[in-house]
Amino acid sequence: MRIPPALNHREFRLFCIGYIPSETGEYIHFVVQNWLVWELTHSAFYLGLIGFFEFAPRFIFGPIGGVIADRMDRLKLLVVSRVLNFLQVLVFAFLIFSGWIQFWHIIFLVIFMAIVSSISTAAQQVLVVSIVPQDSVMSALALHSAIHNLTKVIGPSLGGVLVTLIGSGPSLLVQALTLLWMLVMLFKMKSPAGSGSGARGEWLKDIREGLSYLSQNRRVLVTILTTYSNGFFGISYSQFLPYFAQEVLHVGPAGYGLLVSAPGVGAVGVSFLLSTHTKVRRMRRLLLGASLVFATSIFLFAISRSMLLSIVLLAIVGSVQMSYRVLARAIIQEECPPHLLGRAMSLFFLDRGFGSLGAVCLGSVAALVPVPLAVAGSAVLSGIAAWGMQWLPARERGEGSILQESEPKR
């Protein structure tokens, strides 16, 4: 079996060694948090509301995080963000152990961590591609996604078991240990040359510069808009998995953990496959195909009443979701000049913010109609939007469509 080229580089290996347990802990946190919300409220609307507060801050702080990532040492930013994450987890665990935990506490903690994550996400994504040479960038992106999806299998499954066996508070302490391990690995790493330009200037001017570039490069623009539509109409399904576990499939917290894990199962194999390649052709056509399969799989999951079938469908959802996000990131990396990469990545990751808006909208609809019907309708809109988005003109004069491939712009 061919070894992914990115693993030949020490800093990337250290990052992966820390990232695997840390991201596993994040999914343990996700299971604990959403299951607590369900136990406290028994409301699909409040599940959607938590999803909104998880990602809505990205609309404000995401672009700022992109500017920071282009200006400052990205490794140091990750260290600071992990320390703040560690403190948030300890406060969350204390509230659970004390018996004081209430829904508004969870909202406050979610908003705090969402702001921290918004600022650090772009730094992490740019760091991943800056600690390997250019010919290993595609491998690094795909392997990073493969590891993320591996933890998406391990973390929720482990989280569901831990919540069942030891409870929510001790489960969060397990996450705290994983964050300490990540910090150890980050301290071992060396910052790549040219990490952050150290430039000074007006923040709003820098943000406008990133937006201006996006409006002028139609291929990057349509790529990002496609992830936004997938996020708004598609990704929000995951916020309602506690409802499907309890009310549709009747499988409890352990089954809920399996449902959250399932998307990662299909994604891992596809991610490792992509990680062995340094170049993928016709990325924009593959982006459209993955988006359509993504929407179709969510629709079928929404109408499924079989636990086994639901797991299979969610595995497909995860594999194509990973595929279109890796392809989108590769397109951005290929097209975008290095000094704007942090800002471009921060705009790309606003798709999670659109996912939060979709979650709260879907939660509102689900208060009027059955949740499965609301999710199925949203999946249909996701497919329609993805298809229509790809046929926007590739140039200002409308010459051809975005599906036509071209040489990367540098």
Share of residues in strands: under 5%
Calculate the terminal CA-CA distance, rounded to whole Å.
33 Å
How many whole angstroms does the radius of gyration measure? 20 Å
CATH superfamily: MFS general substrate transporter like domains
Tally of separate domains: 1
Largest sheet: none
Number of helices: 16
Class per helix and strand makeup: mainly alpha
How does CATH name the architecture? Up-down Bundle
Q: At the third CATH level, what is the topology name?
A: Growth Hormone, Chain: A
Helical percent range?
over 70%
Helix-strand sequence: HHHHHHHHHHHHHHHH
What's the total count of β strands? 0
The global form is globular
Which regions have little confidence, pLDDT < 50, spanning 5+ residues? 394-410
Q: How would you state the average pLDDT, rounded?
A: 80
CATH class (first level) name: Mainly Alpha
Q: Which short descriptors sum up this protein?
A:
16 helices; globular
Structure report:
By secondary structure, the chain is mainly alpha-helical. It has a single domain, classed as MFS general substrate transporter like domains (Growth Hormone, Chain: A), CATH 1.20.1250.20. 77% of the residues lie in helices and 0% in strands. It contains 16 helices and no strands. The chain has helices spanning 10-41, 44-55, 58-71, 74-98, 103-130, 137-165, 168-188, 203-216, 218-233, 241-248, 252-275, 283-303, 307-335, 341-348, 351-366, 371-390. Helix 9 (218-233) runs parallel beside helix 15 (351-366), helix 9 packs antiparallel against helix 16 and helix 15 (351-366) packs antiparallel against helix 16 (371-390). The radius of gyration is 20 Å and the shape is globular. The chain starts with 9 loop residues before the first helix and ends in a 20-residue tail after the last helix. Residues 394-410 have low confidence and may be disordered.
